[in-house]
Design a protein that fits this description.
single chain; 510 residues; alpha+beta; seven-stranded mixed beta sheet; 17 helices; globular
Length: 510
């Protein structure tokens, strides 16, 4: 039996999966991702320790490989990865610093200066990406100003998936979708943008060569084989941005497909046949970048989703086990009680407008509101936020007739029903849950020659989906609540701009 291995390097966990050539999972292994605050005096500085990233990847790979039959053959391995977070490597490929996490706020001043000096519209219309406080460009500027001695010794600035690949096979490269996370890459030209680099004062020579996802990088070395359990000589293939890998097993590579990927971020992803940057999309939070599918592009709008429910669980249900919280979420999603209004902007608003000063809030709380009603309000707020983002997709000419939902939230039928009701669209959920790792495995299969192309990989490795139709009562209820949601957002704007709470936006750690 031949297997493909997919790695999923995410904010909440690092996972590995072994899949046969028909997409059936043989083994999934998972460990929590580890982020730390090195200096308590600077709580805004958060990193992923590079040793922990590699050690955790090794652990999940070992667990998966050891569970396979003794005569199993590993056809290839590829990694899907969260965006933006990178590490500087010296000429010996030794890390000189830890990964600055996307939850880290140290680079916000550089982001704000870039908005003033370069501008959001110019950035989007050049690269398809709006500036964000955690974009790679601002990490490089921060390192240049605060640790020039490190940057002087740096040969390459490497994103997390590319770091793991280098440890596996000794080769350095990145794919187009990950390069687009940096603000320094032009998807239309499939090349690094020298003009932006010059304006930012960063050296493009620090960036890895950019290649299409699915490109064969090299083979697992003897040293990596000893640490991971992967057979020496296993092909290592370029994966890509995690949300795009997660869209592959449900046919999300086809133009017109719209996928809702639920994780720490709640993402609406649509596949485009052409690279198009309409001016109407400026300021909406939409990003247009290369897809991991050859010749395709991706538009996505995103906001914190699972990060908000994790915050709620940690704050209002500490110590509750997974089964109990699943039951609470099911009850909350089905609640028909009179609810407070919840604004889910705990990390600012990232769609359908970009507003870093926006903040989360419960409005209209009563003594009758307990934990269940508050969680129901959280789900409603997340649903309405997604509805607003999806509606803004009209600026890209997108009017979906259905939604494909994957990720952690798709495992709860109550949440799926409430999402269908909020959007007024049928929602299809695949039978497989580990779509990100499976999408990486599909790219591994293409790069290793197991599949001729993406269409063949999708035909072989996709599964049946279950459809949830919106209900009339549910759609009416969300229609009624949408105006309250919008009114609350507008009403709190002057409060947020005056710096209520801690005086500014705070990133959620998950």
């Amino acid at each position: 039996m031949r297997y493909l291995i997919g790695l999923d390097l995410g904010s909440g966990s690092i996972r590995a999966g072994a899949f046969d050539l028909n997409g059936r999972p043989a083994r999934i292994a998972s460990r929590p991702s580890t982020s730390v605050t090195p200096d308590p005096a600077r709580p805004g500085e958060i990193v992923w320790p590079h040793r922990a990233v590699w050690a955790t990847a090794c652990e999940v790979l070992q667990e998966v490989i050891q569970a396979l039959p003794a005569d199993a053959e590993i056809a290839g391995v590829a990694a899907a990865c969260l965006g933006m977070d990178g590490v500087p490597l010296d000429r010996d490929n030794t890390p000189l610093y830890d990964f600055i996490a996307w939850t880290d706020s140290r680079c916000v001043p550089y982001y704000e200066a870039w908005l003033r000096d370069f501008g959001e519209a110019r950035q989007f219309l050049t690269t398809g990406s709006p500036p964000r406080g955690f974009s790679t460009l601002f990490r490089l500027q921060w390192m240049r100003d605060h640790h020039p001695e490190i940057l002087e010794r740096t040969r390459k600035w490497v994103l997390m998936g590319d770091f793991v690949n280098q440890r596996l096979c000794g080769e350095l490269a990145t794919d187009y979708s990950m390069a687009a996370c940096t603000l320094l890459f032009s998807p239309g030209a499939a090349a690094w943008d020298q003009g932006i680099a010059d304006k930012a004062g960063v050296d493009l020579g620090l960036m890895c060569a950019a290649k299409p996802a699915g490109t064969l990088l090299g083979q697992v070395t003897a040293a990596a084989a000893a640490e991971t359990g992967l057979p020496q000589g296993t092909p290592v293939i370029l994966g890509g941005h995690d949300y795009l890998c997660g869209a592959l097993p449900v046919g999300g590579h086809r133009p017109g497909a719209v996928v809702n990927i639920g994780g720490t971020w709640d993402i609406i992803q649509a596949t485009l046949a052409e690279f198009t940057l309409p001016e109407a999309a400026v300021g909406t939070g939409w990003t247009v970048e290369h897809h991991v599918a050859p010749g395709q592009f991706s538009a996505f709008g995103a906001a914190i989703g699972g990060g908000v429910t994790t915050w709620f669980r940690d704050t209002f249900a500490p110590g509750m086990n997974d089964d109990s919280f699943f039951a609470l979420a099911t009850e909350a999603a089905a609640s028909r009680a009179a609810l407070p209004v919840f604004l889910p902007h705990l990390a600012g608003c990232t769609g359908p407008v970009m507003d870093a000063t926006a903040a989360g809030a419960f409005l209209g709380l009563r003594q009758s509101h307990g934990r269940t009603e508050m969680l129901a309000a959280v789900f409603e707020g997340l649903n309405l936020q997604t509805r607003e983002i999806l509606a803004s997709a009209a600026c890209l000419g997108l009017t979906p007739e259905r939604l494909i939902m994957v990720g952690g939230s798709a495992r709860n039928p109550g949440i799926v029903q409430s999402r269908a009701d909020a959007l007024g669209l049928p929602v299809d959920v695949p039978g497989v849950t580990e779509t990100t790792a499976q999408g990486a495995a599909m790219l591994a299969g293409i790069g290793a020659g197991e599949f001729a192309d993406m269409d063949q990989a999708v035909a072989a490795m996709t599964c049946a989906m279950t459809r949830t139709e919106p209900t009339t009562d549910g759609m009416r209820r969300h229609d009624d609540r949408l105006e309250l949601f919008r009114t609350a957002f507008a009403a709190l704007d002057p409060v947020n701009r005056r710096g209520a709470g801690d005086g500014g936006p705070e990133l959620i750690e998950n």
